[in-house]
Amino acid sequence: MILINVGTGPSYDLKFEVEKDFEYAKGKFFSNLGFIKDGIGYTAPGQKLQFFLTALNEDFDQKIESEIEVTVSYNDVSRNRYEESFNISFSQFKGLSQLDTSSLSKITRDIEIIKKDFSRVVDRNGFIKIISYTPVSAEIADCKKIEEIYEEFENNKRKFQEKNNNR
């Protein structure tokens, strides 16, 4: 949503009155946003306030039928009070493509995989596991690994020979 002071002068004491409210997220309503409840003290000529109001990939069918009716009142530099009403309808977005939910599902699955892989690096208290080797201990670990591989090779060789001798 974008609010712009399109006038040539500043506006003061902006107040917002919501006639038709909008649930922009579960349990969160347009009328409860800070600037709607409390107003805005000042906007400069051409000043733009821009913010993300809602995601249409959640409760799309309900939101697409929604309208916001709001009346904005403000003072000019001469303290003249003005009032203007706006009707914001989301129905103009009917028929437009939505975000592909299969992509969201894939992202969710990928994040779960990353989370599972990362849990192998972190202990149950959330601390990163650190395994450090000195050069000597690294050599010993490598030697043990080589011995294990050699032992497995010898076992497989023995089984192969026994199998061929029994033929």
Low-confidence stretches: none
Written as H for each helix and E for each strand, in order along the chain, the element string is EEEEHEEHEEHH
Average pLDDT: 85
Largest sheet: 4 strands, antiparallel
- The side-by-side strand order for the widest beta sheet comes to 5-2-7-8
Description:
- The chain has 167 residues and is of the alpha+beta class.
- It has 2 domains: 2-93, no CATH class; 101-165, no CATH class.
- The chain contains 4 helices and 8 strands.
- The protein has helices at 34-38, 60-64, 101-119, 135-165, and strands spanning 2-4, 11-20, 23-25, 28-29, 40-43, 48-50, 67-75, 81-89.
- It has a 4-stranded antiparallel β-sheet.
- Strand 7 (67-75) and strand 8 form a beta hairpin.
- The radius of gyration is 33 Å and the shape is elongated.
- The protein starts with a strand and ends with a helix.
- The mean pLDDT is 85.
